[in-house]
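SEQUENCE-TO-STRUCTURE ENTRY
===========================
Question of interest: how does this chain fold, as expressed in backbone structure tokens?
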Amino acid sequence: DWGAIGDSIMDLSQRQLFPDEIQLDLYMPSKASVLFEGDARFGNVYRNAADCPADYDLIILHNMSPALVRFKMQRYPDTSFYDVLGYLQGEMYDRMRFCHVGLTRLLGLDDKPLCAPQVGVRHISELVIQRGSIALALGAMDESRRHYARWQSVLDSIHTELKASGINHPRFVLIGSGVSAHKDLERLDTEFVASHCEVRLDLPSLEAVQRQIASCEYFLGADGGLMHIASAIKKPGVALFAEVNPQWRLPAGSRLHCIFASKSVDMIPVEEIVSTFMHAITESVRL
């Protein structure tokens, strides 16, 4: 389910192409479906196949996996269907643009711009942003590429820079889950954590994760599901990438500034992360 966060945000981003007069529902048997509750374009979000109505005019399959083909044939054997990703696998392609091409072809649209990724607002509509707070994503599912080992140096420098710029009490909100995130926490200075951080690892649900990111003013972390949530709710900050082209993951206009390394995000110098983050903050203040 954690692996589905980023992919689902990217792959469902082009739903905005559908005209308003078309009712669009989402069936998504994954915990990540909660991220789309309260979405302006999805009329209903279903996690259980038995809850889906029987009278749709068209079934759009995310891909041609055995599970989704079985769902279609058992629930809607006589209903027309269209698939977006087909048998495409892997991550070395522009997911949002690929889906954009497939759906513009389906809808007969020309010259429609790429839609920015969005998530639903049901769980975050009434949140208050905590000024000077920075969501820091610890840990990584793919540690060989997406794990950064020098967060303490980054935090020390950002804290100094922010205080110099007039933000006297910056707070780092530490988010993430699993063994990798806890190892990152253990590497941080305990006094620094006690004085300047809030530890929010292993939050109980994706709703809580979404709320926590939404309540922070900025985001900092590597490419992954948490980064995609931050981008979709328009958080400014910095995203670290390795191997995968950042333009395949974040659309033009994203408020996250990207830093790319060829093999691992751990190759990125501390100074570059800090300077890019401070530039992102300055830019967000101007906006």
Observations:
- The radius of gyration is 20 Å.
